[in-house]
Design a protein that fits this description.
By secondary structure, this protein is of the alpha/beta class. It has seven helices and five strands, in the order αβαβααβαβαβα. Strands 3-2-1-4-5 form a five-stranded parallel beta sheet.
């Protein structure tokens, strides 16, 4: 795996070291199934909020539970590698739970970020981050960009329409 893709133990140590050096660690999470411009802008905006950006990436099993049996389109190791290649991303770590709450409790990032479609009170781990002196922020999303939309477009353009019962 690329050097930015870290195990749970490695990301905890890395986060502690960054924070000990006075750097603000930003955390976000997601499936990032088919990377698109909305993801790239979102991650760039998240990174600008601090010194380091850590991504909690849903495992394939977690994505299936959240999105259904036909997802993810891209395997977790491929998604992790693509994310780790972005200049705005400092580290990626996988998590298998439905939410990143347990991972957030371990990392205690300085800033927790989600898209503006998430109300702060619904963001997993928000209470923990706030209780430890951190902040929870949302960033605007790029309208009209989504993995589901991309998949629907591919189906419409490239799959023959089924007719009848």
């Amino acid at each position: 795996m690329p050097p930015k893709v870290l195990t749970r133990d490695e990301i905890v140590l890395k986060t502690r070291n960054w924070q000990a050096a006075g750097e603000k660690v930003v955390f976000t999470n997601g499936c990032f199934d088919i990377l698109h411009a909305g993801h790239v802008r979102y991650l760039s905006a998240a990174r600008q909020l601090g010194d380091r950006l850590v991504i909690g990436l849903n495992t394939d099993a977690s994505v299936r539970r959240l999105k259904g049996p036909k997802r993810p389109v891209a395997a977790e190791q491929d998604r992790a590698e693509v994310l780790s290649a972005l200049a705005s991303v400092d580290a990626v770590t996988l998590f298998d739970d439905d939410t990143p709450e347990a991972l957030i409790e371990l990392l205690l990032p300085d800033i927790l970020v989600k898209g503006a479609d998430w109300p702060v009170e619904k963001i997993a781990g928000a209470k923990t981050v706030i209780e430890h002196g951190g902040s929870v922020l949302t960033v605007p999303l790029l309208e009209g960009r989504s993995t589901t939309g991309i998949i629907e477009t591919i189906i419409q353009l490239h799959c023959p329409q089924q007719t009848g019962g």
